[in-house]
Structure formats: structure tokens, C-alpha cells
Write a structure and sequence with these properties.
This protein is mostly beta strands and about 120 residues long. It is about 0% helix and about 50% strand. The protein is built from no helices and 11 strands. It is globular, with a radius of gyration of 13 Å. About 35% of the residues are buried.
């Protein structure tokens, strides 16, 4: 069973940066397709970013393109989300997700088989 644990959330002022990390265990990490989603209070879960198993391709939601960067370290079993130029609209609970399947659409939740519990990011204006 894959376990995902997010860290790095917190309170930050608008314009500043924050890096989230996701530590994975229980599976060969390099075989997992990884993604990040977020969910603001009262809203549906929203796709943020995803990265292929080898890290060669990345995908981003329109609202974060150019500001966020997803990466992974297969040797350390971690995925990261570098968030720059944060805005109050980025305030949400951020979830790490992993897909063990060989195919799927990166930006939809049903692609992913495993989820972390989330880490809260709050951006003040």
C-alpha cells in the first residue's frame, strides 16, 4: 500500500514562495505517476500539477502555469512543488497523489490511486 505524506505548508504573504514536499513509501516510487491537487474551502478539488515517472514531462493547471514547478527525486522517493509568486487565491489544502496505472489523464482525480492527507497553504494579502 502506498503511503504519501505531504509537508511544507504554512502561512505566507502574497508574492512570496513556498515549497511543498511529498514523501512516498510502500511502492517503487519510480513507477508512480505523481500529481498535486488543491482544495479550497467550499470548492471542488482542483488539479495543480503532475509529473511523469521519469520526470521528463510535466503538466500544470492554468491557474499556476509559470508560477509553480513540480519535480521529483526517484532516489529519495519524493515529489516537490515549488510555488512562487503566491496569491491569496492559492490558499487551499494541497494534496499529493500517486497513480500506479500505466495510463490516465493527469488532471483528473480518478487517475490517481493513492492520496496524502494534505498540507494547508494560506496566503495573506
Amino acid at each position: 500500500q502506498v503511503q504519501l505524506v505531504e509537508s511544507g505548508g504554512g502561512l505566507v504573504q502574497a508574492g512570496y514562495s513556498l515549497t511543498l514536499s511529498c514523501a512516498a513509501s510502500g511502492h517503487t516510487f519510480s513507477s508512480l505517476f505523481m500529481g498535486w491537487f488543491r482544495q479550497a474551502a467550499g470548492k471542488e478539488r482542483e488539479f495543480v500539477a503532475a509529473i511523469t515517472r521519469g520526470g521528463g514531462h510535466t503538466f500544470y493547471g492554468d491557474s499556476v502555469k509559470g508560477r509553480f514547478t513540480i519535480s521529483r527525486n526517484n532516489a529519495e522517493n519524493t515529489a516537490s512543488l515549488q510555488m512562487n509568486s503566491l496569491m491569496p487565491e492559492d490558499t487551499a489544502n494541497y494534496f499529493c497523489a500517486a497513480a500506479a496505472g500505466v495510463s490516465g489523464i493527469p488532471n483528473i482525480t480518478r487517475t490517481y490511486d493513492y492520496w496524502g492527507r494534505g498540507t494547508q497553504v494560506t496566503v495573506s494579502s
